[in-house]
Write a structure and sequence with these properties.
With about 120 residues, this protein is mainly alpha-helical. It has helices spanning about 5-10, 20-30, 30-45, 50-60, 65-70, 75-85, 105-120; strands at about 60-65, 90-95, 100-105. It has a three-stranded antiparallel beta sheet. The longest helix has 15 residues, at about 105-120. About 10% of the residues are buried.
C-alpha cells in the first residue's frame, strides 16, 4: 500500500458528523484553561534535563549538588530548571539547616512518567 493510499484510509470518505457523540465529547473535555495547564506540564517535561531531574527525584530526595552530579550539568543550570519545575508544582523543596532538598511535589507526575514508560516499552 503506498503512502497516498494509507493517507486516504485515515480520512472518512463521506462527510457525516455524529452530533450526539461530538456534543458528549465536547462536554467531557476539560475547559481551555485546564487544557493549557496540561499542555504546559507536557512542555516542561519535554526537556531532557528537566525530565532527568524528575526521574532522579522520583527515586530519591536530592539537593542541587546531587542533581548536578547525577545529570552532569552545572549547579546554576540545575537551579534554573528546578525553579521552572517548582513554578509548575512538579517539585517541592524543604530546607534542612543550610541544605535545600528537592522531591516530587506528589505522586501524579511519577505516575504519568511510569505509565508513559510502560507505553513506550510495549
Amino acid at each position: 500500500m503506498n503512502s497516498k493510499q494509507e493517507n486516504n484510509d485515515a480520512v472518512c470518505s463521506v462527510i457525516a458528523i455524529d452530533e450526539a457523540k461530538v456534543k458528549a465529547v465536547t462536554e467531557a473535555l476539560p475547559d481551555n484553561m485546564d487544557i493549557d495547564d496540561l499542555a504546559n506540564i507536557f512542555k516542561i517535561l519535554a526537556d531532557q534535563t528537566r525530565l532527568k531531574i524528575v526521574l532522579g527525584l522520583a527515586k530519591e530526595e536530592l539537593c542541587v549538588c546531587d542533581l548536578s552530579a547525577l545529570i552532569g550539568v552545572s549547579v546554576s543550570a540545575i537551579s534554573h530548571q528546578l525553579r521552572l519545575l517548582r513554578n509548575m508544582r512538579i517539585v517541592k523543596n524543604r530546607k534542612e539547616g543550610k541544605m535545600v532538598y528537592y522531591s516530587l511535589d506528589d505522586s501524579h507526575i511519577e505516575n504519568i512518567i511510569s505509565e508513559t514508560l510502560v507505553h513506550i516499552k510495549e
